[in-house]
Amino acid sequence: MNGKSTVGNIIKLLLATFFLILFIGMSIIFGYTDTSIPLAYQAFTEFDGSNEHLIIQTVRLPRAFIAACVGASLAIAGVYMQTLTKNPLASPGILGINAGASFAVVFVLTYFQISNLNMFTWVSFLGAAVAALTVYFIGGAGRQGLTPMKLTLAGAAITALFSSFTQGMLVTNEAALDEVLFWLSGSVQGRKLETLSSVFPYLITGWFLALALSPIMNVLAMGDDVARGLGVKVGYLKIMVGMIVILLAGGSVAVAGPIGFIGIVIPHIARQLVGTDHRWLVPFAGLLGGILLLAADIGARYIVMPQEVPVGVMTAFIGTPYFIYIARKGFNRG
């Protein structure tokens, strides 16, 4: 990469960081309760216990941080899934993470009547991890080992299996449907910092590993045979990629429920802006993912005010046109 491209990418990263901070600020200020920049500043410097100050500190600040972290994690997980599977439409859901997490939550709610949000977090994390590990085990079986096609097929099969189980339980238990419907749609509303703090160590570990492995991912992107020829232990690398996806996507689903399209759309936008070098692609995708989810969450507050649309619905509304564009572009190339 020449110096001109490097400088350009640095500028783009700085701009993305600025916009991420800007959208975090907007998320803290905008909403049904009327607030302003001075009022938000006073909430942290001269807290007086007023309703507005309480909303800013206990509702909007956690919501903004959770949206930024979840969006960044889903986008980075999407980058790694698309590189691993060589599939431009791959996303964290391809490993059955969303389906596994949803199944686990509905299962404990149906059979154990657990409705605590923090318990949902850990149960969904466990379900996401179990589903992803199952997909990796099935995809790695056989003579050829873990291949992109086998991984994709195994993920589709496990996703269909868990989704069917989940729908079956919801049909027979309407109370469970009422309890988890908003969570199943994907939402950052009503989440607390304690919810984020419980999985944040896993998210930050995933971010660190993703950045650390980014140079090697450039080699893997050239193909397994080329990577092996250059001395890369492809099997171990794929296991590490799976761990990263489980940490990032599993932690995100645990906090906010299954939120789609970010893991598909953002990696493509990031590649168009900074290229395919993972050393730039990973941090830039993380920043864009945070921005997109923050923007979607802010918009969700105004669509049917005073009610709110689940942010997963907003990301689908934003991401579907671009998803269709990616699919058509890939089809035309084929």
UniProtKB/TrEMBL annotation:
Membrane topology summary: Multi-pass membrane protein
Gene Ontology CC: plasma membrane
Cell membrane is among the record's keywords: yes
Main location: membrane
GO biological process: siderophore-iron import into cell
Record keywords: Cell membrane, Membrane, Transmembrane, Transmembrane helix, Transport
Source superkingdom: Bacteria
GO molecular function: transmembrane transporter activity
Membrane spanning stretches: 12-32, 64-81, 93-114, 120-139, 199-221, 241-269, 281-303, 309-327
Recorded family membership: Belongs to the binding-protein-dependent transport system permease family. FecCD subfamily.
Protein's name in the database: Iron ABC transporter
Organism from which the protein derives: Bacillus coahuilensis p1.1.43
